Amino acid sequence: MNTGSDMLLLALVALGGSLAAALMLMGVLLLRLREAERKVSEKETTHESVLDRLQENEYRLRTIIESEPECVKLQAEDGTVLEINPAGLRLVDANQPADIVGRKIYSVVAPECVEAYRENMRRVFAGEAVVYEFKAITLKNRIAWMETHAAPLRDARGNIYALLGITRDITEHKQAEEQGRRHQTELARVARLSTMGEMATGIAHELNQPLSAIANFSRGCIRRLRSGGMSPNELIEPLEEVCAQAERASDILRHVRDFVRKSESQLKPMDVNQIVRAVVKFTEHEARQHRTMVRLELDPHLPKVLADAIMIEQVVCNLVRNAVEAMAEANSPRREVVIHTRHFAAQAVEVEIADTGPGIDAAVIDQVFDQFFTTKREGVGMGLAISQSIIEAHGGRVRAESGRDGGAILRFTLQLSEQQAHKRERADSLHS
Q: May I ask the CATH class of domain 68-169?
């Protein structure tokens, strides 16, 4: 408002000015009033427009949430379910929102998982975004495994007032994991039985030698004692031989017992070189029986791999025995098995088992890992098939080829343990 003009017009009226002055004052006031009304109308229009947009955005957001195929829910700090979308209702087998909204979420959490669930909620209301798994018991007593991605919701002042959770059913994934564990356990059992079954003849032969020697020396001592013409000193040498042969038999049985009684399948950081040495010690009797020398060329700086020791032991044992038997059947004049270990690529270790036998026929090289395929006169063709399954279950690869100078070469890879992989990456980055 122009204060000077208004005051002038008022003065004119007050002083008895003309009718024109009064009319001028009324016109000015009317224009100001209309201008004010226009501004108020514009503000109301703007407010209504903003309100419409907010309502439209809210509708869109609610539509998205309600059509989301995974559970979306809001929870209070005490665990009360504030809101939940239709997918969430289906997840907990609720017929309507009232079945779960306003109730504590713990009513659908398995008792053994409640404390862990509470701890994760405490972390969220402390400002942390978390991902956690839990076992649920739905409103229809259906047992399921859930995975929740939870994050804090804050108001305009930054205060956390609710937990926003997106939950999905991972029951099938959990069942697949359990099936995989059972599969690995079964592989270990089958491989152990297969390996021990194939080695039974060799072990029996190895045990027969010391037992026969013990029996023969013992009978000789008995005959001499009965004849009465033997002094006690003459018994020392044969009895020492009896003791030596008994210790040899005991050593064989100890290795067999250690092999059979190992723990169930479990993945841990393992030293491949240690596994190889254990297998060589276990199979040395059979290798000696077939006049075969086993030579080791092991990388002393080999990093650890993530593996089940017993299963990898069985793989190495199968491959070593396969090489020994192949050379024996072919009557190879020179019989040697060489086991190499080395780094392979960035995050893997390779084990190579090479022999001096006849090699692998190119026509069948793609079949050697097939179940029930064998070129042996006696055998069921399961050793290499089982070995391939074990290595692939560990995330590795196994392959076979003929050597350039003859003989067969079998290689398999194993992934490094996570810690060793990180070390390897850091070392590679420093050298690059």
A: alpha beta
